[in-house]
Write a structure and sequence with these properties.
This protein has 215 residues and is an alpha/beta fold. It has one domain: P-loop containing nucleotide triphosphate hydrolases (Rossmann fold, 3-Layer(aba) Sandwich), CATH 3.40.50.300. It has 9 helices and 8 strands. The strands form 2 sheets. Strands 2-3-1-4-8 form a 5-stranded parallel beta sheet, with helices on both faces. It is globular, with a radius of gyration of 17 Å. Bound molecules: BIS(adenosine)-5'-pentaphosphate (AP5). BIS(adenosine)-5'-pentaphosphate binds next to helix 1, helix 2, helix 3, helix 6 and strand 6.
Length: 215
């Protein structure tokens, strides 16, 4: 199954992708995670991307399309994949369709998650991630057992640089301007499955699976 998870910052794309990996046995391709790894590794691409990310802006299409194209060609994507945070512009969506057509493949469904802005702000200002293994927590909704420490590996938890309120608001504006048009783009292609992003993590997961089965 070749899936796209679409939705604003903090809607729960990464959280839901983790459950879908276990359910369908296909990998998550998160452009945000790949870019953060490049930033952490101090690669030239990472250094360039960091300026855009810290400002809440999108990294240029050419950079992101290149990393996704390379990733989709890897063996573990042969049975399917979950794109999380890509595409984010119409140009990226067009490029994805071309890359997949070159591989004789196509997107099966686009799950569009939505929650209101106040909920996004709560989710993102309270989000913490592990420096060691990348596990994601929330101070109120999914707290770690020991404050500031990862349950899985004991690593130190940190707040993402772009999870400060001013940057979150900018990311939401960028979403509305550049990414939200993809909802009608994929609706017109008959691929959109709209799923409410509010409620329990497990309940949303089951709603996604039901929407996929119905398609
Ligand atoms: P990226 O990392 O993709 O960020 P994003 O799309 O803004 O999404 P987030 O990771 O912030 O949120 P999420 O929806 O995954 O939510 P999560 O599951 O963590 O991108 C970062 C930056 O990289 C971009 O701004 C851009 O600069 C660049 N970039 C990336 N891709 C790009 C592209 N294609 N083109 C150009 N630039 C690109 O959940 C959030 C919190 O809520 C967590 O704490 C979680 O525990 C909690 N939570 C989740 N579900 C629930 C629930 N049901 N109830 C309560 N709490 C919940």
């Amino acid at each position: 199954m070749n899936l796209i998870l679409l939705g604003p910052p903090g809607v729960g794309k990464g959280t839901q992708a983790k459950l879908l990996i276990d359910r369908f046995g296909i990998p998550q391709i998160s452009t945000g995670d790949m870019l953060r790894a490049a930033v952490k590794g101090l690669t030239p691409m990472g250094m360039k991307a960091k300026e855009f990310m810290d400002a809440g802006a999108l990294v240029p299409d050419s950079v992101v399309i290149g990393i996704v194209q390379e990733r989709l060609g890897q063996d573990d994507c042969a049975r399917g994949f979950i794109l999380d945070g890509f595409p984010r512009t119409v140009a990226q969506a067009d490029a994805l369709s071309e890359v997949l057509s070159g591989l004789s493949r196509s997107i099966d469904a686009v799950v569009s998650l939505s929650v209101d802005k106040d909920e996004v702000l709560k989710r993102l200002t309270g989000r913490r991630a592990c420096h060691g293994c990348g596990a994601v927590y929330h101070l109120e909704f999914a707290p770690p057992k020991a404050s500031g420490r990862c349950d899985a590996c004991g690593g130190e938890l940190y707040q993402r640089d772009d999870d400060k309120e001013a940057t979150i608001l900018r990311r939401l504006e960028v979403y509305d301007e550049q990414t939200a048009p993809l909802i009608s783009y994929y609706e017109a292609a008959g691929l959109l499955r709209a799923v409410p992003g509010a409620g329990s993590v497990e309940g949303i997961h089951e709603a996604i699976v039901a929407a996929l089965k119905a398609s």
